[in-house]
User: Fold these one by one.
Assistant:
Number 1:
Amino acid sequence: RPNMLSWFSMIMMLFSVLGVPCVPFLTKLLHKKGTVMFGLAVAGIGCLMLYLMPTDAITGMMISRAITGYGYGVLMGILWAVITDPVEYADWKTGKRYTAIVMTLVGLGIKFSMIVGGTLPNMVLEATGYVANQAQNEATLTAIRAMTSLLPLGAVVMAMVVYGLFYHLNEEKIRQIQEEIAQRNAQSAAK
């Protein structure tokens, strides 16, 4: 139903905005890593719900988009608290602050994902025979469904695995790192 497309997008954006203010509460409750994992899990549940939803269940699709959006909002809210941790870690290991490099890499990552997110759907739609303003063939409908549910679900699952297994900078470790940096800097200043 073409008249629902703007609502489909707006619901996700609206609930992502609602997710951001929940981040301080979630961080107190779950800490940073737990908050990231929570946001990913919620977004993943929303994506899976969307995939499993019958194609005529408009209300269910909107609810699944709201859930996905809320999870993404939590992730966008916690992102800026998490990316400072590698800066502290690099300073601790090397004695140099790489804030600009880390922020640049985050910006490049966001830009790269925007390029992929803008290009890949067009390539898939073209390959499946999409024709604007026409009833779509089964291959195109399947591709649209996969790109709006399975593709983001796959990305969420990969992020959960990588972040869950390889990210070890918790609040306690960061406090220890900051204390050691402060002591090192104090000793350097005393010389």
Number 2:
Amino acid sequence: NAIYEIVTKSISSILKSIFEKKKIESIYEKCEVDSLNFDLPCKDELSGLLNKKSLLNYGEKIIGLGKNLNKKGLVVYCNINNMKLINNDFGSSYADNAIKGAATVLQNCFRSNDIIGRYKDDKFVVICAGLNDFTFERIREQINSECKKWVEDNNSLFVLSMSVGITQFDNETESNSLEKLIQEASLNAKK
């Protein structure tokens, strides 16, 4: 009986994981279809990530899915440090490179099923279903490491670094609360 229970729980967990990943992948596929059907594209032209509208739209769906599956997750807020100085000292093309670099760093640091988007200007948001706040330090360290690697690989004249903050969502999180979660994560980034 105990073995049967362990096996059924394992199978159930695997199926939920597959279902969750398929749902997230279908959101990305829908984004591609949406960009063909509507005037507003799903992706930010400069970063290649989801734009704010798509980030909020699909992020809410991920949070709702997490609630339905009784899963926790993280909202990660990232802000490029010293962006005004980069723009003033080196020019707008370097500021654009900083945004592209930050997008590359985030894509290298997060899973393929995480929702990554440019929230506005030099600010980015990542929705990570299934992660908890215990992974935060690892995420921050990985972002710092990838920023240093990007600077070296691109022989950058400026230092790329990001302030990172998180907040957690779970089945208690209110519907349509992604903006509040982003605000909370941004305040945590300033600490």
Number 3:
Amino acid sequence: LIYFTFLTSKEMVGSRMPGMFSVVFLFFVMPKVVFSLVMIIGWPFIHLIGWSRSPFSWAAIVLSILDAGAILYGAIYGKNRFEVKNVDFVSPYVPPAFDGYKIALLSDIHIGSWKGNPEPVRRFVELTNNQNPDLIVFTGDLVNHRAVELNGLEHILALLDAPDGVFSVLGNHDFGPYFPWKTKEDRAWLF
């Protein structure tokens, strides 16, 4: 944490350190939190009712290992496994002209996670286009921290294609609120 305290927001752009730190932090902290929660839940059963500590200890160990495994899986493999989830929306308030209208919704891309590795970005663009959507929308968090994370990848994102267009709204990460900006002009550099 001390390392990140002294970095400026401009130095963090393009750095993999914040993401790596988050994974390492979660890997070491979350299993302990899970273990502690299970033991806290077990405390009244163990100390007030007199149950054995063993089932709670084993449950805490197993859940902690599963949690650590899930964090590693997500950080190493999961971020590159894109899923298409088809959802049929039915409402009496939607005009019949929209029957069969396809919207591709892309959310929480956090494109800085693939800095220097454009192949996953190409794959999700191709996967999106293969759905033949009428409209493509990004619903926030296109970047991790700064718009410059898009540098070198914008030509791939430009391949997204839908007859009614490609639109985006900003999410909390797109506004860059996670850095101590020294001036309003520095924060404007985000955009």
